[in-house]
Design brief:
Layout lengths: L13 E15 H4 L8 E3 L6 E4 L10 E9 L11 H18 L12 E2 L9 E2 L1 E7 L1 H4 L2 E2 L5 E5 L12 E5 L10 E3 L2 E8 L2 E8 L4 E5 L10 E3 L2 E3 L1 H7 L2 H11 E21 L13 E2 L2 E2 L12 E9 L5 E13 L5 E8 L1
């Protein structure tokens, strides 16, 4: 137990800081498009979305990367024969993401449509979209603004990995202070590429990228199944969600962004004056009634070595312990200020 306690003044001895740590997250197209013969891609019986892992998903070392799905607004002009249940799933998915990320319009109380701008005024609607929902494991607290990019092919089924057919969408116009709009789902930025302005949006705190289906509107062979090749407009309606997602994954070259980890810290300045903490409460400090560091020289000043700092509450209950990297000599001729940081 301490010999005595030194009070900490909350006004002069305590401060707080906030630090943002960023980590580059590269997601290669070879993994996403099925490096492991699609064993790293998990489809579900409900058919609402598929999950992509960095290893075969049955492996204990597999990490979830993102979920992928397709949705469209019920006012969309997509054509093709559609299974009623399948069509309702895609509409429900669009509405669900819209409710969570954008909320509702004013008095009409209708879900908002995704837009390719920051105005949310009803113009520039994206009615057919792919949703890429990144795992919290890799996005951490949020995606760093201005760091997101996704490269994929807009060519036919046979040209999915041809570089000449590839485009890159990024949010390079966004920054920490501008280029974003705040919604119920947090901040979001516009995804644009050369020749393809405003082709999607990325929600930073939610970790969700929304890719406009208009990028594939002119692709005659977007999807392939037992019925043959289908353009995007038909595939989005009549194909399963997993099938349409397979067609997008096949086209992905790479995805990259910086994640953000926010560390909040409280810093305590523990001040040790010259006339305090010069004696140790450790029983080994004494030997046969004598202070070990003084030996038989009674005239020598007391000496102690500080190795640990304890933070206590008002009831003198120990709350936190900080260890010094090496013992600090303390005697009546010096004073110390020790900085203790608690991260949370």
């Amino acid at each position: 137990m301490p010999i005595y306690y030194e009070p900490i003044d909350s006004n002069t001895d305590v401060t707080t800081t906030r630090t943002l740590l960023h980590e580059v997250i590269p997601i290669t197209g070879s993994i996403v498009s099925g490096t492991y013969a699609d064993k790293n891609v998990k489809d579900y019986s409900h058919g609402m979305f598929q999950s992509v892992y960095d290893y075969p998903f049955l492996s204990s070392s597999a990490n979830h990367i993102f979920d992928l799905t397709l949705g469209y607004d019920e006012s969309s002009g997509l054509s093709g024969s559609a299974n009623t249940l399948m069509r309702s799933k895609k509409i429900n998915l669009y509405n669900q993401y819209s409710q969570v990320l954008l909320g509702y319009t004013g008095s009409a109380n209708n879900v908002r449509k995704f837009e390719n701008d920051l105005d949310l005024d009803g113009s520039g609607s994206m009615k057919e979209v792919f949703f890429v929902n990144f795992s919290r494991l890799i996005t951490k607290d949020e995606i760093k603004k201005g760091s997101f990019s996704i490269k994929f092919s807009t060519g036919s089924w046979a040209d999915t990995k041809v570089t000449a057919k590839a485009i890159t969408l990024s949010d390079s116009g966004a920054s920490a202070t501008g280029g974003t709009a705040n919604t119920v789902g947090g901040d979001y930025g516009i995804l644009s590429g050369s020749g393809h302005p405003n082709a999607g949006v990325v929600f930073y705190q939610a970790g969700i990228a929304v890719i406009s289906g208009s990028l594939f509107a002119g692709v005659a062979q977007f999807h392939s199944d037992s019925a043959g090749y289908k353009p995007f407009t038909n595939a989005a309606v009549s194909s399963s969600i997993s099938g349409a997602c397979d067609s997008l994954r096949r086209r992905l070259h790479n995805i990259q962004f910086n994640n953000t980890t926010e560390i909040n810290s409280k810093i305590y300045f523990c001040r040790v004056s010259n006339n305090k903490f010069n004696y140790s409460a450790n029983p080994t400090y004494l030997s046969s009634g004598k202070i070990r560091v003084k030996g038989d020289q009674r005239s020598r000043p007391p000496v102690s070595y500080i190795t640990t700092i304890g933070l206590y509450n008002s009831d003198r209950e120990l709350l936190a312990v900080a260890k010094l990297s090496e013992p600090l000599r303390k005697d009546p001729t010096n004073e110390l200020t020790l900085r203790v940081r608690l991260d949370y």
